[in-house]
Amino acid sequence: MPQTSSAKTLWAVCGYMACSATLLIGNKYAVYKVPAPSFILWAQLFGTAVAVKTAHLGGLISHLDALEADKLRAFFPVALIFCATIFTNIKSLEYANVETFMIFRFSTPICISIADYVFLGRHLPSARSWLSLVMLLLGAMGYALTDASYIVRGYMFCGLWYAIFCCDQIYLKHITSTVKMESNWGRVLYSNLLASLPLFFMALGEQEAIQNADTEGLMVIGVTVVLGTAMSYYAWLARSLVSATLFTILGNVCKVVSIGINVSLWDKHASPFGIACLMFCLVAAYFYKQAPLRNPAPELPN
Q1: Beta strands in 83-233 (DSSP E)
Q2: 3-state SS class at 294
Q3: pLDDT digit string (tens) for 67-81?
Q4: Distance of alpha carbon 231 from its chain centroid, rounded?
């Protein structure tokens, strides 16, 4: 992964990647035990908001932003974009297999690096970083085309997901720079609480699966709530410290790690060449160097 001289940034990045890769596997097992994905996601979001507020009331979190109208308005698009990303993601996977969708996702850093330049005041990537982004995409394509056929029947939803996902990465980075919060936990509270509201209504259609859930299934969901809380904290912290492009690459690396764990434990279908392509993605990501700001702004408190 990219080198950093900041211990805080390294801590945030490592924490985010560890939680993200682990949560993806936890979610797969949770959906296997309780086939109610909307409910599981709602439980993670709302559970995170409750956990953060409870920890603050109990003195475990010293600073937490109160719910204020101005901040709610600023974070409201976060909830909308989040739900739109989930919806288009699900619809995209109806028309494209997971491996094909991986190609779409691994091409997003190229688009986001340009948006970083246009909207967030960063320089364009260096030649080395451009090569890293292209190599990352080629590695994903090698894995997808080797271990599964390229399947897309509905380009509209894939295109919608692509546009919304890129907007999500740029807007969330914009929020960390323009909305002053007392602590990083404030971002966690606002984003999870607002995003949980529409998901509550989506989860109402999964009552039968929820009612049939056993104790083990509910315990697994509880574990994912803990992981989700930790990931949300580290994600917002890392997002505030690195560029939108680098954060997207970190997310892609987490996907590679999760795929590696998945093919080792469950779906043992990857060919040796496919595994080599995944390793190639990790090497490519390592050589990416974050583009500097054209006019560095003072860092907001976290």
Answers
A1: none
A2: coil
A3: 999 999 999 999 999
A4: 9
Which pTM does this prediction carry?
0.90
**CA nearest neighbour of 289 among 122, 103, 108:** 122
Question: Shortest CA distance to 53 belongs to which of 179, 177, 178, 192?
Answer: 192
In whole angstroms, what is the distance from residue 185 CA to residue 61 CA?
Answer: 8
Question: What is the average pLDDT score of the chain?
Answer: 88
In whole angstroms, give the CA distance from residue 141 to residue 84: 26
Structure tokens at 198: 């529409």
Give the largest CA-CA distance in the chain.
Answer: 56
159 Cβ contact list (under 8 Å, min separation 6) = none
pLDDT by residue (tens digit) across 23-57? 888 888 899 999 999 999 999 999 999 999 999 99
Query: CA 187, CA 61: separation in Å to the nearest integer?
Result: 13
Is 174 in contact with 119 (CB distance < 8 Å)?
yes
- Give the Cα separation of 141 and 32 in Å (integer): 28
CA gap 99, 109 in Å, rounded: 17
CA distances from 154 to 97, 161, 165, 209 (A): 11, 12, 17, 29
Burial class (CB in 10 A: 0-12, 13-18, 19+), 123: middle
Task: Write down the pLDDT at residue 36.
Answer: 92
Q: What percent of the chain has pLDDT over 70?
A: 89
Question: How buried is 70 (Cβ within 10 angstroms: 0-12 exposed, 13-18 middle, 19+ buried)?
Answer: exposed
| Nearest alpha carbon to residue 234 among 275, 172, 188 | 188
CB count in 10 Å sphere of residue 301: 10
